[in-house]
UniProtKB/TrEMBL annotation:
It comes from the Bacteria. It comes from Granulicatella adiacens ATCC 49175. SUPFAM superfamilies: S-adenosyl-L-methionine-dependent methyltransferases (SSF53335). CDD domains: THUMP_AdoMetMT. This is THUMP domain-containing protein. GO terms for molecular function: RNA binding; rRNA (guanine-N2-)-methyltransferase activity; rRNA (guanine-N7-)-methyltransferase activity. Coiled coil: none annotated. The keyword Transferase applies. Pfam families: RlmL_1st, THUMP, UPF0020. InterPro entries: DNA_methylase_N6_adenine_CS, RlmKL-like_Mtase, RlmL_1st, SAM-dependent_MTases_sf, THUMP_dom. Residues 63-174 form the THUMP domain.
Length: 401
């Protein structure tokens, strides 16, 4: 767990004065949920431009810290160092070298270069990585008057060269490990759902913290835990560290300040009604331990239970499920038997809304009902649909009587 000392208002004013440099930033995301990232950023007060898998915005050191700590559905926050067209290695080298890397990278920076190239003349990714690395080394050697090699013994500054249709984008990753790694999941099942995808599934529902929430195939508890973090307004990155915290140019104490602010935003005035169930008792024990580490164990009831045994008199609840499907643990026939069981079990719950993620496009045939809405998402590399069955609100039923 990350610990920090409270900062005085005067100290933070000094910090804020030092962090006035504005950067072009990008929050990366899995395909299909970039709009959610954009919505999160707008809710935080930023102007955003959303493209496939990316949400672009601007900010300073404080904003980098704030978005890393608060964004639930993004993968990483990156600084865009440069963007240009290059069709030759000489052009790639010279334009990369022209960027003032020394404004961010100190003389001892460790800066590995990763890369990708799509539909571009410069299609050899290893060669592109090597050219970019060499150009930055030359730039820093001149800037720091070094004739010998750079030590690369300091903090980590992960750099990426991404080329799409001959347009080169050079970025530095401020997050370090991906933002989906909240730090609470010590153990997981055979086909785990990433934390930011679980958060996206919750955020795409009509759930509010005053409604019941149920995950019938909770596995290691990721979906119920993310729902609890959302319901209690606990920042997902509150208890982890980030690459930028160790950067020498970065404003000292700014991450601590954002964490201090985030702790004050936690809702301590509510008790959530969240149930996570699974047929596997060993997974329930893992889910309980993960919830304890996430700090929300008192907000979730975990129960070993077969899907067909769920009964409730509660109204207006939300069911979110990521059941095993044909390419996740079970055969196609076994998965489809579960879908049929879901349809039969949930049919009486007319005021409940059900949201089910699966790669089986014939899901509705087995569930026994047409979805109100479907949304295409990617669970890792697997193309899935998020089938949504909206319930009839209890108030509407009463009005019609």
């Amino acid at each position: 767990m990350v610990r920090s000392e409270a900062l005085s208002p005067l100290l933070f004013l000094r910090i804020k004065e030092k962090s006035m440099t504005k950067y072009k930033l990008v929050a990366t995301a899995a395909a299909g949920i970039e709009a959610l990232v954009g919505k999160e950023l707008r809710n935080l007060g930023y102007e955003v431009q959303v493209e496939n898998g990316k949400a672009f915005f601007e900010g300073d050191d404080y904003d980098i810290a704030r978005t890393n700590i608060w964004l639930r559905t993004a993968d990483r926050i990156k600084i865009i160092m440069g963007q240009f067209t290059a069709k030759t290695f000489d052009s790639l080298f010279e334009q990369t070298k022209a960027i003032p890397w020394e404004k961010i990278l100190p003389v001892d920076a460790e800066f590995p270069v990763s890369g990708k190239s799509v539909k571009s003349t410069l299609h050899s990714v290893p060669n592109c990585q090597s050219i970019v690395k060499k150009a930055i080394v030359n730039r820093l050697s001149e800037a720091y008057h070094r004739r010998t090699h750079l030590p690369e013994s300091g903090a980590l500054y992960p750099i990426e060269v991404a080329i799409l249709k001959d347009v080169v984008t050079l970025t530095i990753d401020t997050s370090g490990t991906s933002l989906f790694k909240r730090g609470y999941r010590t153990e997981k099942g055979g086909a785990p759902l990433k934390e930011n995808m679980a958060a996206a599934l919750v955020m795409l529902t009509s759930w509010y913290p005053d409604k019941p929430f149920y995950d019938p195939t909770c596995g290691s508890g990721t979906i119920p835990i993310e729902a609890a973090l959302i319901g209690k307004n606990i920042a997902p990155g509150l208890n982890r560290s980030f690459a930028a915290e160790k950067w020498t140019f970065f404003t000292p104490g700014v991450f601590d300040k954002v964490r201090e602010e985030a702790r004050k935003e936690i809702r301590t005035d509510i008790q959530l009604d969240i149930l996570g169930a699974d047929i596997d008792g060993s997974m329930i024990e893992i889910a309980k331990q993960n919830a304890i580490k996430a700090g929300v164990a008192d907000q979730i009831e975990f129960k070993q239970m077969q899907l067909k045994d769920f009964r409730t008199k509660k109204e207006n609840g939300i069911i979110v499920a990521n059941p095993p499907y044909g390419d996740r643990l079970l055969s196609e026939e076994q998965a489809q038997a579960i879908y049929k069981q879901m349809g039969e079990t949930y049919a009486p719950l007319t005021t409940w809304s059900k949201y089910i993620l699966t790669s089986d496009l014939t899901f509705e045939d087995h569930y026994g009902q047409k979805a109100t809405k479907k949304r295409k998402l990617y669970n890792g590399a697997i193309r899935t649909d998020y089938f949504q069955f909206w319930g009839i609100r209890k108030r509407r039923i009463q009005e019609e009587q």
